[in-house]
Amino acid sequence: MKLAALLGFGALFLPAVAQEPAAEESEVEKHLRLAREGRPVVRPQAARRLLEKPEEAIPLLYEACGQDGSGLADLGKDLILVLGEFGDLRLRALLWNALSDRNFPWRPSAAKSLAGAPEFREAPRFDSMLNDPIALVRGAALLGQRNLERRESLDYVLGMREDQDDRVRQQAAALAADWGQDCSLYWILEDLGREDRFFALQTGKLARFEALKLLKDRLESAEQYSTRKPHDDPANQAALAAMRKEIETQCTKEPQLPDIARAAEPRKGDVLGLELRSCRRGEIFLRWNLDDTLAVGTGNPAVVPLPEGTTAKLLAEAQQRIEQLEGQFWGEPGCDLEQFHFQPDPDARPRAFRVNKGQAAVPNLRPEALGHLARSLAETLPNERSKDPRLHMLRSRVLDALSILGGKLPVSAGAPR
Amino acid sequence: MKFLLPSFLVSLVLWTVSAQAPAPDSSALVQDEAMEVTMEDLRDFKYRRGKQPPRRIRALDGMRVRISGFMALGTPEGVEEFSLMSDSCGCDGNTKPHHFVLVQLTDDTTRFTPDEIIVTGVLSVGEEEEDGFVTSLYRLQAESIE
C-alpha cells in the first residue's frame, strides 16, 4: 500500500476522515485533533470551529498547553492563530510568553493571534512588537495598532513605510492612509509596477497581487486594474492614471519615495542565491551576480560590490559541491528553512536545494557539502554597521541564522573534494 | 504508453504521465493548446465557503490548463496527489481552499522537489468536502509535470 510508504510527516496529507479517532471522541475533541493533525487545508477550518464552543474548547486547550505552556508549540500554527480570539486571559498570557521567547517556533502565528483581538491594556506590548526582527511579527504589530486604533503610533507607522520587507511596507502604508495620510497610497501604487524575481519566486508578482488587494479596498478606480495583465498593458495604464487622479483629490503632491520602496528593473545575471527564512531569526535574501555584486533583499535590493572574480569562484565551488549532494531536500516541514539557489545559465530554470527545520532541533541537518558552500558564501558578506538594516552586520546575522536553521557551519570553507 | 522524460531533465522533472498520455512528439502540441493559468489567477477573489467563485474561475472547470507553482512543503513521498502552491516556503499563512491546486497523479507517485514545476492537465473547479470540511476547490488530473 502506497500510503504505508509515507515519511514521518505523511500524516499531514491524509484525508481528514482517515485520522485515527480516539474512542468516544467528542466533536470538540475531534476538531482539536484535526486542527493539529488534519490536512493543511482542514486545520484552519477545524481550529475556527473550536471558537464556536469556547466552554468546551478552552479546558482542552489548557490541558494541551500544560501548566507551564510547554505544550503550546505542539498545537501548531493553525491552532495558535485562533487562540487569541478566545479572549481568555490565560491563553493570551501563554501567547505573550511564547512571543517573548526568540526560539519559539511559531512566533509570527502567536503575534497574529494576539493582534487579531487585542486588548487595550496590551497596547505597549504591541508598540514593542513594531521593532521585532521578524517581518511577519512587525506586520502583526501593525494589525494590533489598527485594531486598537492607536493613532498615537502614526509617526512610527509612517516610518515603517520604509521597512525592508514589502509586506510590512504595504501594511504600514495602508494603515497610514486609513488614518488620514492619503499620500501613503502612492507607496502601494508603486508596487503595481514590480516585476522582480528571486530566482523562481516571483516576488514582484506577489507584491503586485497584494498591493492591488489593498488598493481595491481604498480606491474605486482600482477595480479597473488587473494583475493578470502586464503593468504596461494600455488598460492597466489607464487604470493607473485613474487611481492617481483619485488619490490626487486627497493628496495634492506626490511624495518622493525612498529607493527601498521603488519598483526596480528585474536583475539579470544572478547565479547563486541564499534564502533564509526563520520564524526565530527573520528572513534574509542574498544573490551573487556575475558582475561581482551582491544583492541583499527582494524588490529593489541593496547592492554591494564584491572583489573581482568572487562570483565566478563561488559558482565553480557551488557546481562541485552540488555534485556531491544526493537529493535536493533535507529535514521536515516547519517554520525555518534555508534554500540555496543555483542558476548558472540565466535561460535555464533555477535549481533549489533546501534544508528545512521542523519544530525540534535536528543535529547535522544540513549536508556537509552545503555547509561548506554556506561558509564560502558567508565569507564574502560585509559585516559592518550600517544604517540600512539589510546590510547591518550582515555576515554575523547570516551565520547566526544558519546555525539556528541547519546547524553550525564548518569552521572554514575548505576546498571542494 | 508511459512517456519517460529524457534523463538530462530528470532533475527538473518529477513524474511521468498517465497511461493515456500522448507520445513525446505530440505532447508539445497538446501543451501548446493548454491554457496558461497562474496560481495568482486562482487566488484572486475573496473565497467564502458555499459561495460560487467568480465566473472567470468557474469557466476553467474542465479546461486543460498549464500552471506553474511549487509542491507544498511536507509533501510525502510515494502518494498519488500533492498540493501545488504559489510559493516554495509555505509562507502563505494558513492554507485556504483557493490557495492551492490538488494535483492528482494517475500512474505514478510523488517525489518531493523544492524547484518550481509546471503541471499540465484537466482542471476541475468546485468545493469538495470530507467530514464537513472543504478539502479542495481546485483539482488537476496531471498529464505531465515539467
Structure write-up:
- The complex is a heterodimer of chains A (about 425) and B (about 150).
- Chain A has about 425 residues and is α+β, with helices and mostly antiparallel strands.
- Chain A contains 16 helices and seven strands.
- Chain A has helices spanning about 25-35, 40-50, 55-65, 75-85, 90-100, 105-115, 125-130, 135-150, 155-160, 165-180, 185-190, 205-215, 235-250, 310-325, 370-380, 395-405, and strands at about 270-280, 280-290, 295, 300-305, 330, 335-340, 350-355.
- In chain A, a hairpin with a 5-residue loop joins strand 3 (about 295) and strand 4.
- The two termini of chain A are about 40 Å apart.
- With about 150 residues, chain B is of the alpha/beta class.
- At the A-B interface, helix 2, helix 4, helix 12 and strand 7 of A face helix 2, strand 3 and strand 6 of B.
Chart the SSEs and their pairings.
The complex is a heterodimer of chains A (417) and B (146).
Chain A: H1 27-37, H2 42-51, H3 54-65, H4 77-83, H5 89-100, H6 107-116, H7 123-129, H8 135-148, H9 154-159, H10 166-178, H11 185-191, H12 203-216, H13 234-248, E1 270-278, E2 282-289, E3 293-296, E4 302-305, H14 310-323, E5 329-331, E6 336-342, E7 351-357, H15 368-379, H16 394-405
Parallel strand pairs in A: 5-7
Antiparallel strand pairs in A: 1-2, 1-6, 2-3, 3-4, 6-7
Helix pairs in contact in A: 1-2, 2-4, 4-6, 5-6, 6-8, 7-8, 8-10, 10-11, 10-12, 11-12, 14-15, 15-16
Chain B: H1 24-33, E1 35-37, H2 39-43, H3 55-58, E2 64-71, E3 81-85, E4 101-104, E5 117-130, E6 133-145
